[in-house]
From TrEMBL:
SUPFAM superfamilies according to UniProt: FAD-linked reductases, C-terminal domain, FAD/NAD(P)-binding domain
Taxonomic source organism: Coniosporium apollinis (strain CBS 100218) (Rock-inhabiting black yeast)
Protein name: Glucose-methanol-choline oxidoreductase N-terminal domain-containing protein
TM region(s), chain numbering: none
Pfam families to which the protein is assigned, alphabetical: GMC_oxred_C, GMC_oxred_N
Gene3D superfamilies the UniProt entry points to: FAD/NAD(P)-binding domain, Glucose Oxidase, domain 3
UniProt xrefs under InterPro entries: FAD/NAD-bd_sf, GMC_OxRdtase, GMC_OxRdtase_N, GMC_OxRtase_C
Origin superkingdom: Eukaryota
All copies of domain Glucose-methanol-choline oxidoreductase N-terminal, residue ranges: 187-201
A GO term for molecular function: flavin adenine dinucleotide binding
Family according to the record: Belongs to the GMC oxidoreductase family.
Amino acid sequence: MRRYFERLERNEYLPEGTAGHGFDGWLGVSTASTATLLGDQNYLSQGIAAAITLGKAAGKLITSLGDFLALLNPDINNDSTNRDSATDIYSMPLATYDNKRSSPRQFVVDTAGAAHPNSSRKYHLDIRTNTLATRILFADDGTKPRATGVEFLEGQSLYRADPRSNLTIAGIPGSVNAIREVIISAGAFNSPQLLKLSGIGPAEELNNLGIPVLVDLPGVGTNLQDRYEISIIGESTQAYNISRQCTLLQSLPDPCLEQYEQGQGFYTTTAGGLAVTMRSSVAEGDVDLILFNSGLWFSGYFPGFSLYQPGNNSFFTWQVLKAHTRNRGGTVRLRSADPRDVPDINFNYFDAGTVDDDADQKDLQAMYEGFNFAREIFRQDQAENTTTTTAPFVEVFPGPDVNTKEQIEQFITSQSWGHHASCTCPIGTDDDPNAVLDSRFRVRGTDGLRVVDASVFPEIPGLFLATAIYMISEKAADVIIEAARAA
């Protein structure tokens, strides 16, 4: 799979030709500006404390930016054979290029707008916005149902996950026909929803909602997986120098926004920039924890979270992410046969999910150890503060009242979140009753229908999910093109 990563990456932080990386792809990748972030004593003190806590500074006196950079691994995506098992402190890669966000959206827009020298369209790609896919159309003229197109409703904010949705607006029905095949890329929630609305999924669930069963595939909408994440936040009596002028868009004018528009300043990079990989006592091989940071208050996702910054700009957040979670108990089930309804999504965290072989307790133990590691970084910051000029960070969330193992575990189970939903239409072998797709992304029991998105993984790959989705999509593109040429 490394060749797919090299194909899509446009790396701008390593020397061109570095093994295992690409430099001409569509996804711009950079790292946080060490000069911008670590030049601030508050950031630097946390980086030094993290390195000491990890044991990277044994026998060394670290008092300067140069000392710390000598310990910092610049490439978390390196091609070393022991990368996934190594504990280290890294500079965090960012999907940015020339200080701007890089994403599949821009790739799709650029592809749709590409033209030949005579101004004719280079690719036959049409993008239909404000259009909700409601059902896959099939012809039943062979041994398997064959996908022939997609029905849709046209109109703004038709899906009820959108807070602007209005029940009085019905949408304009329409359809498109497929010459060769239909490819679904609706994500971990909506791909299983669309399959079920089209009659592909667990027969009992479909029958209960009056949806005619086209293919009984019990695995559709099961196996929902995610990471566990939690935050520990410290506060310093000394504000950040690099963001001292920033209002974080809570009021205008914002001097930092004006700097950004000139390609300069704090907003051109991330509020974090460091990542620590570690292995818990219950890890099975590879590292199973990654800690990363923000020079802001961040306690999870909720409406308005991005503008929530209590007090002054003197907070530092360590986020603990549990990778390779063992829970396979999440589900995406239909609430109704109405395609505008949001499905019933239940991750079944911890003991509500997979409990075989103490899976829930092992994940909780790993999170407990990661939490204590982050808490130790704050303690270390206070200890090493005697040799630096910064005011140390003191933990304020969850704070000293959460102290015993029982209290910490209660905090973790009640406050954890995730944002890497996946695995609800998994690829699997022919003898796997819960496999939804074969190895060529084809929906089992059908012809002319594939799924390509985060739902295809049997298990969550790696530490983060986005790059894995891009890589599997590049592989799917090869598979689809190969099949088209052979037809």
